[in-house]
Write a sequence for this structure.
C-alpha cells in the first residue's frame, strides 16, 4: 500500500511537471514577434511630391497608362511613406490602360506596346483601339506626381509648358496640359504650391536622351545658354541643366522640405541601343556578289584617294564596303565623322559599314531591309542605300552623349550635397544591372536584355514594373541612410518584368 501511495505521489509530481512544460510550450508558440514600428527619422513624409519626367510618371512600353502610373517608383515610395506618416498620393491618371490620347477627338498619342508573334519573331507593336484620354479634358485638383513625360530640365520652369494654345519653349506638352492648374503655370509652380514636406526629383535624362534616341542626329548645344533655340534631339548645355535643377531644389527646399535626387544612368546602355545587332543583314551568295559589284567603283575610288595620302590606310579599311553570303552582314551607314572626300569625287560620300562599336537604334529593326524606292527592288535600306544618321549612334556620338551625361551627374551630386538631401546613384545601379544583373530573392536575375531581362519595358528605354521596383528600393536605401528612417522597400518579385496584353 505504501508503495502504491508513493507511486501515486510520483505520478502526481510527473503530472504537474508535464503540465508546467506543456504550458510553457504553448506560451512560446503563441508569443508573436513585436510589430515593426516604421519611422520617418528626421524626414516628414506627410506630404510627398514627385517631380521629373516620364521615368517619374511611370511611363512604360512607349506610353503612359493606368497600370504603369500605379507601378511608378514614386507611387511605390508613397506606399512606403504611408507606413511612417505619409499621406495621400494623388496621380493624374490616364483614362485607361491603352495609353493613347486624343486632342479635340484627333489621335495625338499612340497606344502602349505589346509583343506580337505575327511574324514568328516577337516584335513590339501598339495595342489596337483608341485610348479614351482626351487631352482637353483638364483634370481638377492637385497632384502629388507631377512627372511629365518628355520634359527636359528647363521645361519644369517654363511658363505655359502645358498651354496647347501657346508655345514658349519647344512643343507644349499634352501630358502636363491635362493637369496643369492653369494654361500658363509651370510644373515647378504647381509642385511648390502643395507645400511638400518631402519631394523626389529625377530630371535631366531627356536633356541627352533625345540625342541618343535620334541616333545622334541632334546638335550638342554646349555653350548655348538659350534653350528656346534647342531642337528636340539636341543635347542641353550643362549650365542650363545645372541652373534648372538648382532652381527646382531652391524652390522645393525653401520651406524646409527634405528630399531625394537621383543622377542619370548611362543612356548608351539601354536596350533601345543594344537590342539590334550591328550585323543584322542576311544575304545569299548571288545577292552578296551583286552588291559587291555595285560597290566596286566606290572601293576603288577610296583606294585611289588613299594612295594620294588624303586618307589613312586605317580609314580606307574602315570605309571599304564588303558583303558575303550569310546571316550576319553589317549595315551600310552614313558617318559624318569620316573625311569628306566629295570635293575630290562626289561619289565618295561618307559611307562605311557598322562595327560592334556602333549602336543601331531599336526602331531600325523595322527599317533595315525595306526599299527606299518601292519601284526599285535593289534599293535596299542598309545595303544599297546607306542608313541615315538617325538610325545609328556611332562611337563619336556616344562619346558626345557620355560627356554630357558625366557633366550632368557631377552637377547633380554637387547640388545634392549643397541642399543636404538624399542622393541616389542610379548610374552605378544600372551599370551593375547591365554588367552582372540584379539578383532577386528567388535566385533569378534582372538584366537589361530586351524583352526577356525583366528590367526594361518594350520601348527599350523605360523600366518595367520590376525595374521601377528596383529603383524605388534604391531611393528607399538612400532615404533611410540620410534621414534615419527605416522604410522596408518593396519586393521586386511582386511586380511583373513585362506587362501582359
Amino acid at each position: 500500500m505504501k508503495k502504491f501511495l508513493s507511486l501515486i505521489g510520483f505520478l502526481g509530481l510527473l503530472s504537474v511537471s508535464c503540465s508546467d512544460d506543456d504550458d510553457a510550450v504553448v506560451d512560446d508558440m503563441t508569443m508573436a514577434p513585436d510589430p515593426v514600428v516604421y519611422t520617418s527619422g528626421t524626414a516628414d513624409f506627410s506630404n510627398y511630391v514627385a517631380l521629373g519626367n516620364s521615368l517619374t510618371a511611370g511611363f512604360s512600353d512607349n506610353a503612359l497608362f493606368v497600370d504603369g502610373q500605379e507601378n511608378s517608383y514614386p507611387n511605390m515610395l508613397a506606399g512606403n511613406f504611408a507606413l511612417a506618416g505619409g499621406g495621400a498620393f494623388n496621380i493624374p491618371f490616364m483614362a485607361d490602360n491603352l495609353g493613347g490620347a486624343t486632342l479635340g477627338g484627333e489621335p495625338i498619342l499612340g497606344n502602349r506596346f505589346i509583343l506580337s508573334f505575327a511574324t514568328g519573331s516577337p516584335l513590339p507593336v501598339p495595342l489596337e483601339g483608341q485610348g479614351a484620354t482626351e487631352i482637353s479634358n483638364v483634370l481638377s485638383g492637385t497632384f502629388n506626381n507631377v512627372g511629365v513625360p518628355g520634359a527636359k530640365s528647363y521645361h519644369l520652369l517654363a511658363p505655359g509648358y502645358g498651354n496647347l494654345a501657346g508655345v514658349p519653349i519647344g512643343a507644349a506638352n499634352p501630358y502636363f496640359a491635362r493637369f496643369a492648374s492653369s494654361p500658363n503655370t509651370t510644373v515647378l509652380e504647381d509642385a511648390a504650391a502643395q507645400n511638400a514636406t518631402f519631394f523626389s526629383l529625377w530630371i535631366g535624362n531627356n536633356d541627352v536622351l533625345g540625342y541618343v534616341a535620334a541616333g545622334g542626329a541632334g546638335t550638342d548645344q554646349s555653350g548655348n545658354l538659350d534653350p528656346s533655340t534647342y531642337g528636340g534631339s539636341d543635347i542641353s548645355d550643362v549650365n542650363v541643366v545645372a541652373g534648372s535643377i538648382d532652381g527646382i531644389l531652391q524652390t522645393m527646399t525653401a520651406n524646409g522640405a527634405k528630399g531625394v535626387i537621383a543622377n542619370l544612368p548611362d543612356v548608351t546602355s539601354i536596350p533601345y541601343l543594344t537590342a539590334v545587332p550591328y550585323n543584322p543583314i542576311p544575304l545569299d551568295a548571288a545577292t552578296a556578289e551583286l552588291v559587291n559589284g555595285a560597290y566596286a567603283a566606290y572601293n576603288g575610288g577610296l583606294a585611289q584617294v588613299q594612295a594620294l595620302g588624303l586618307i589613312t590606310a586605317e580609314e580606307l579599311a574602315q570605309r571599304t564596303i564588303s558583303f558575303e553570303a550569310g546571316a550576319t552582314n553589317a549595315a551600310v551607314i552614313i558617318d559624318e565623322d569620316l573625311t569628306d572626300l566629295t570635293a575630290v569625287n562626289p561619289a565618295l560620300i561618307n559611307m562605311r559599314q557598322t562595327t560592334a562599336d556602333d549602336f543601331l537604334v531599336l526602331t531600325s529593326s523595322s527599317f533595315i531591309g525595306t526599299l527606299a524606292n518601292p519601284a526599285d527592288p535593289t534599293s535596299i535600306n542598309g545595303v544599297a542605300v546607306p542608313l541615315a544618321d538617325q538610325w545609328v549612334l556611332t562611337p563619336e556620338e556616344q562619346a558626345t552623349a557620355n560627356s554630357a551625361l558625366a557633366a550632368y551627374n557631377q552637377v547633380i551630386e554637387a547640388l545634392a550635397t549643397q541642399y543636404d538631401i538624399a542622393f541616389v546613384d542610379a548610374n552605378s545601379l544600372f551599370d551593375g544591372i547591365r554588367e552582372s544583373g540584379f539578383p532577386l530573392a528567388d535566385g533569378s536575375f534582372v538584366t537589361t536584355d530586351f524583352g526577356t531581362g525583366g528590367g526594361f519595358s518594350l520601348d527599350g528605354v523605360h523600366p518595367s514594373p520590376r525595374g521601377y521596383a528596383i529603383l524605388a528600393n534604391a531611393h528607399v536605401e538612400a532615404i533611410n541612410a540620410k534621414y534615419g528612417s527605416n522604410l522596408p522597400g518593396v519586393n521586386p518579385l511582386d511586380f511583373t518584368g513585362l506587362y501582359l496584353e
